[in-house]
Design brief:
246 residues; ProC C-terminal domain-like fold; five-stranded mixed sheet; 7 strands; 12 helices; two-stranded parallel sheet
Length: 246
């Protein structure tokens, strides 16, 4: 958010109880860093909760009095809006983003709570559109968002690695293969984002009947590559539902 100028350094305050990590965060970002959550909650107009899922509700309960009436955005998987709204009278929202947001290429979904206003939704969407692409989603879809956008980069890295290993098996040096595989994935994704064409249309642009691409796709179909990727998203979504129920 600092890189994209969503906020200035003097507009951000964060809590970090470990002194060494607090100093590192202060040094690397130039923001104000304090030891306790209460000071952050009292000072902030918008509160982002960026802790592990199991800590979310205790943090809300601890600061409930100061959270009342404020916009609170949880970045955690598995903790439902209903559970958070039971702990404090804040305007809760859930946001699921992913690690590419660090370079302004994040994929983010925003789920409003029962007290969220349209202004709240617009404001949060604007923030996250500055560091990638953001969409509004119903909370019932957040587990799928977590699987697709949150876990998805790991699946894509696995594809990149596999493409590079295939080239290495044909004798290509590792660094050359990895560079080409990474750039191929990057270029294909950008073309998909900017062309307006569907993945099927883009795929057909590459295929020549009886050619190299057709042979490669036939191997992928034989090994059920598409089914494996679909299963990865579904397994991750199922795990998100289990976390929410526990």
């Amino acid at each position: 958010m600092l890189l994209s100028k969503v906020f200035g350094r003097d507009e951000i305050i964060a809590s970090q109880p470990v002194p060494e990590l607090a100093e590192e965060l202060r040094r690397d970002t130039g923001i104000t860093v304090v030891a306790g959550n209460a000071e952050v909650v009292r000072a902030g107009a918008i509160i982002f909760i960026g802790v592990k899922p199991g800590v979310v509700l205790p943090v809300i309960e601890e600061t409930a009095g100061d959270l009342n009436g404020k916009l609170v955005v949880s970045l955690a998987a598995g903790i439902r809006l209903e559970a958070m709204e039971a702990k404090a009278s804040a305007r809760f929202m859930r946001v699921m983003t992913n690690t590419p947001s660090a370079i302004g290429r994040g994929a983010t979904a925003v789920a409003p709570g029962s007290r969220s206003t349209r202004e709240d939704v617009s404001r949060v969407l604007e923030m996250f559109n500055r560091i990638g692409a953001a969409v509004e989603a119903e909370e019932r879809h957040i587990d799928a968002v977590t699987a697709l956008a949150g876990s998805g980069p790991a699946f894509v890295y696995t594809v990149i690695e596999a493409l590079a290993r295939g080239a290495e098996a044909e004798g290509m040096p590792h660094d050359v293969a990895l560079t080409l595989a990474t750039q191929t994935a990057l270029g294909a994704a950008q073309l998909a984002a900017e062309s307006g064409a569907s993945p099927d249309e883009l795929r057909r642009m590459v295929i020549t009947p009886g050619g190299t691409t057709a042979a490669g796709l036939a191997a992928m179909e034989k090994l059920k590559t598409s089914e494996g990727l679909m299963a990865a998203v579904q397994a991750a979504a199922a795990r998100g539902r289990e976390m929410a129920a526990s």
